[in-house]
Structures are given as structure tokens and as C-alpha cells.
Amino acid sequence: MKPIIVAGLLLVCLLTGGCAPGKDFDAHLNSIVKPYRFSIAWWESRAIPHEVNQWLFGRQEKIDDEIGMVIEYFTYTERIKTLKTEIEAANAGDGESDLASLEAELNWLQERKMALEDTVARIIEKQIREALTEQGIFNPILEVRVRFPPVNFKLGKPPYSLVISPRERIESIREITLKSNLILEEMEDIEARVDKLGVSSLVVGLGGLATYPSLVASDSSLRFTINTVTEEWLHQYLVFKPLGFQYLLDLTGLSRNYEIATMNETLASMVSKEIGSIVYEKYYSEYENGANQNQPPESEFDFNREMREIRRTVDAYLADGEIELAEEFMEQKQQYLASMGYYIRKLNQAYFAYHGTYADRPTSISPIGVELRELRAQSASLKDFLNTVAVMTSRQDLRDSITADGAVEEPKKR
To answer: 42-65 burial string, b = 16+ CB within 10 Å, else e?
Structure first.
């Protein structure tokens, strides 16, 4: 039990960023964000009793059509988004719809959706557990078929995260969790005040948070939700492994290592997508196909390629010390992307620092993504891939594990 308690305390440090020694910069920063900080302790005090109650009294309920219930929930989610857009248009005088009728439907759907949330979460948890079991992934501590941590999440509105990068390079140096009810004016005020400290900042919305239970956005798609639930569980899993512990030291400021952060986030992202694909194909392939029938044809504009080129150009400017030119370039590209239908509220160093830790995304040009994909291709199974990377403590371990003949070598102990 003691290791679990210690790991739990470390996880709180990971999530709050509150374990780093105080410095002058941090003192100024804390004075800005103090009124807006998200309290992990407050959220846990509300979520854990609810989850215990569900575990004791709500899990024995027999559901005749589990897949149908999940699809119903996410159908409501999409309809609610549409209704909100129509209501905004009606309020602005741009639509001819009956506002009262739209609001009545919205209220009914929101109530019905909320009534389904706990049951839908339990169904998705079970499906993910089954997929993990198929891959032989159980727990990070012992080679036994016991799931730890248990897959457990709650649908809701995750908090925001304030991401801070130096202006002269792209690297996340602080991530602070903020309240989930921030409005746009508050976000922009926080960013403006933090930027005056000589850094680049961005308030980003989170799709999930690796508390226990995990908190996952309730307004997302089915595919995104299953991927995110799995990814947050993997973050919990990795805390008990060398890679995750090194990442914890990075996030708490005790030992900064952007490459370790990139390895950890990319590993969790890659594994979660594979597990997610197993779940989709087994349970929701018909729903996914039906949901994609009404999608507009793909544009000739390649967003992924454009973002990679923007990132490369920004890095080149910064390498030459041309900070102002880099920032002017990003502002121009933000406007260009908006003209192409891709609205990014703020494109700056902090944006790339946040999204760049996922080396399997277009906003990252890190070779770590290529290296991890190569290692995955050489691995005998998803479990072997996860176990191999989870014990690494440096990028050199990753390089050493990739061999020319395609065999995967265990990282050398240092």
C-alpha cells in the first residue's frame, strides 16, 4: 500500500505542477493564476464518493443494448452542438427557427444525456478493459492478470491548462491547470499578463485529465472519447514506470526534460489509438461508417503539411534569434489558416510547445515520433512496445532499442 500512496502523492504533483521550488518568476506567475487555479483536491472530494457509490450500487444493472445506449448518448452530443449553433444564430437574428422550440429540445436532450452519462462511462470502461486484456496489458508493477490502476473515468468538463514557453525557443516550461469555467476574456487577460513576464503563453482546453477517476470531456465524439479514456489511463499506468516517473520530474520542475515529455505523451497517444481502434472495430464500426456518410469531401488544402512547414519556419527564425519575425510569421499564418477554414485562437511558441509533445501530430517535427513508430513496427506486440518504452529514462535508450536488423533490444541499464 505504501508505494501506492507515494505514487498517488506524486501524481498530485504531476497534475498541479505545485512541487517545483519557488522562484521569482513563479512568484509573479502564481499571483496571476491564483484566482483561476483548478483544485484537484476539491474535484477528487466530489468525484471519488460518487464513483464509490456507482461501484457499490450502480454496476449490477443489466443493460440489454449497451452499444445502442452508447450510440444514443453520442448522437445526443452531436445534436446538442447543432442546436447550440442554431440558437446562437436565432439570437443574432440570422435564423428563422423557433427559438423557444430549439431551447426546449436542447433542455430535453441535455437532461436525457446527463441521465445516461454514468452508465455510458461504465460500458466504455468495460470495453477498454476487454481490449487491454486481449493485448495482455494489466498493470505496471507485477506480472499478474490484475488490472491496476482500474480503468475508471467520469464524463464532464475538464479544466483548462496554461502552457508557457520561452519566446526564444519552443519548449514547455510550465503547465498550470486552471478552472473549467473560464470565459474567453479571462483567458486572454491571463495570457496578456503572463506574456508581460517575457514568455509565450496559451490557455488550452483539455480533452481529459489523468486524475483518478479520469475526467474526460462530455462534448466530444465517440472516437475521441474512447481514445482519451485510454490515454489518461496510460498516463496513470506510466507513473509507476521509469519513463512516467521521469516525466513527473519534468512536469514538477525538478528535472526538466522536453524529450522525456515527448516520449511519454507520444507513447500514450500511440498505444491509446491502437486500443481505441480495437474497440471501434469490435463495437462501433457501423456507427462510425454511418457517422462519416455526411462528411464533406476532403479539401485539397493539406493542414498537416502546412502545420509542419509553419513549425519548421518558426524554428529556423528562432534559431537565428529572430523572435519578432517568428511571431509576426505565426500571426500571418494564423490568419491564413482561418481563411482556409481552420481557426486557431492563438498561434505562438506555447501552442507549438503544447502540441509538439505529441510527436505523432503534425504540429511536431520531433524525430521521436519517427523513432517510436519504427520501434513499434519492430515490436512483437503492443504490450512489448509499451513495456520496452516504459522503462526508458532517456531518448538515447530509444535510439539504442532500434537496431538495423529490425530486432528490438532491451534498453541497457545505466
So the answer is: ebeeebeeebeebeeeeeeeeeee
